[in-house]
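Supplementary notes for students who missed Thursday's class. We covered one full example, reproduced here. Read the sequence, then the structure, then the short commentary at the end.
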Amino acid sequence: MKPTVKLDQKALSRHKKRFLRFFPNSFQDQQYIDWERTYKWEAHKLFQEHLACDKFKTLMNKGLYDEIAMRALQVEARTNFIFSFEKMALRDGVKAPGGARTFAEGLYGLLYERGPLSGRFIQWLVALGDLPRKKSRVLSWPVATFFPFIAQPSKHIILKPTAMKAAALELKYDLDYSSRPCFTTYDSLLHFADLTFEAIRDLEPRDYHDIQSFLWVIGSAEYERLEEEMQEG
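Structure (token representation):
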């Protein structure tokens, strides 16, 4: 059982108002949909088209690990969540001998096998950590959390460390952050996301895509700059 934790209500109220200044109709606002929602959802639909459970399992049974990795990378290419050096490390890792199989088995286990999330997530981290590396290591928070976030937005959220730590600090949530990906931090992140979901339920978020966007508006330098431009205008 999670300890009883509440987000800072004054900060939350302030940031809800700030979010609505950017997007007056909240998560239904057309500008929100254009800026934050569409590209995530299009990537989700592409993932389901290519790697839904039955399709993923069929490819696994046929040993088509390179095809699985290629399809996953096609989905990732539709977004801007992962830095260029992380993209290159991931591509190098899955292209190396055995890399695609390690990646595919780890991702399938996380998304579609049964058992506690803790064990499945840890095995996914082990798989990423085992991928061959040339320059940069593959195991990073954005890489580890991108694919589940896109594949299953009702269950998973992505961790972009700088913005998420800033959002947690603003809302006075003690994010149990470790720079090295681990389940303890991810579990803490999911708890933070759930608390945020409940706290902004009146804004009618649909899933963790929306929750991530709300927290991104709080914690990213991008929206700080945009707010400054709005004030100057």
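Commentary. The chain is about 70% helix and 0% strand. Residues 9-36+155-232 form one domain. If anything here is unclear, bring it to office hours.
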